[in-house]
Design goal:
This protein has about 70 residues and is mostly helical. The protein has three helices and no strands. The chain has one domain. The N and C termini lie far apart (about 35 Å).
Length: about 70
């Protein structure tokens, strides 16, 4: 059970971090700072988060409906 709980915590943490960074990206974009290093780092992180969440879906650990509305 500990291992399953660790995976669930990891999934939750990734989803929260992705959501927070998407919010920060929107703020930077609104301020016209899409070319800043910070924005680009968040963009890069977003790609990594998507790859991880896609892998969860590939193995049936996350439904597409679970992520509905969380992507921009």
């Amino acid at each position: 059970m500990e291992r399953l709980e660790a995976f669930e915590r990891m999934l939750s943490d990734i989803q929260k971090q992705a959501e927070e960074e998407n919010r920060k990206m929107a703020e930077l974009k609104a301020a016209g700072r899409e070319k800043s290093a910070t924005y680009r780092q968040y963009f890069s992180n977003r790609m990594v988060y998507r790859m991880i969440l896609d892998r969860y879906r590939q193995y049936g650990l996350l439904d597409r409906e679970d992520e509905k509305g969380k992507r921009e």
